[in-house]
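Our preliminary data section would be incomplete without showing what the modeling component actually yields. Below, a chain of 414 amino acids is followed by its predicted structure, encoded as tokens that our downstream tools consume directly.
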Amino acid sequence: MKRGIYCLLYLALLIPLFFSVSWAQAETFVSGTVITADGMVVASGVVALERGELHNNEFETGGVIGSDGKFKILLPSGGPWGLHVYSEGYLYFPLQITVKENQDKDVPVVLPVDSSDKDDPRLSDIRFEKRGADRFRVRMTVRDGNDNLGPQMLAIDGANLKSYRLVPVGGDVADKKADFPEGEYVSADIRGNLDALDRGQWFFVAADHQCSNGVIYNGLNQSVFSSPRPNPEPLRCEIPGIWKSNFDKTYRFITAGPDRFAGKQLEGDLTVKEIYRKGDLIKFSFVFENEEGQADLSLICSDQMIEMKGSFLFPESGRKGAWLFTKLQNEMRGPSGETLFKNNCAVCHFTDSNARKVGPGLQELFKSERLPSGKPVSEAEVSRQIKEGGGGMPPFGHLKDDEIRALVEYLKSL
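Predicted structure:
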């Protein structure tokens, strides 16, 4: 048998009665924490997902935002999904996401503040209608102060993580970009026993074309609103995390290596190419409107606020200006590399010697010229081996990319 980096699943193959993990039973989730552009944590609201492309209105699954601002929703499959997040007092958040099968997709959500509730859609007269022994439908009345309702009149079954779109009683509107009428909206027939239904676990929301959503009600016609809460986690003086710029755009930055970072604009047309730290400066390169730009920023930290402040420049056109980022949320930290190793690899490998356990010892692995497999030592090759397996080692595809990076960093420290 070829020598390789053997881990816990290899032992599971040898002793199947002892380890009962079955990756075929893994599930696909989308999860996240909902924060606000004014630095609060949302404490109530709902999430709905449509299968496929954003705004195709094929709503299928959904759930509730907890009092801690978190949601976690089981998806029937991986692939593209349109994510929609709603909370009273804030503009709703739409985002196209792609979810890998049998993995948990964490999505950062930042809700803009809704400056006025006068134009919010208003719901009333929510009711459930029996359609047979095992079928029912839901109905509600929708009004809108500025007559620009969109197609998102939704019912979310929080107990079963389902979402349903309601349509005008007179028939759906073909052009989903057109303004929808006020009045009664009704769902298609839903399978279930209405007599045993917990209506308190059903939630109803409507949105208009300006991304306003009003009060969210449960199936008892009760508002589910809870006031947003201050973020309980102190902001860390570091670049990884969620930031809002002075151009009212939000970004997520993550660690990509020593003094190197990756990032993306959560919704918008700017592409971050490279971020690295050079002395006291944080240097950005990016593309906006097909023009390459660069920025020099400084990380400024105090008890009240964490900022990155400086200026940007487009060398070709000469456009320039001030760029300010204010931190909203820390980057979530997953298990450390050491913890991941203990949970996945320690059964088969020593870390403090080169002696063989089930697989070879890994002490000073990155100081060797070659891996036990005979391939040259590199971060890329070790990452590939962990993810894809080989040489008697099964793949660890369930590990996320940041977890594999953490494992590799830990192996480099041995």
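The CA atoms of residues 153 and 206 lie 4 Å apart. The first strand starts at residue 28 and ends at 36. Preliminary results of this kind motivate Aim 1 of the renewal.
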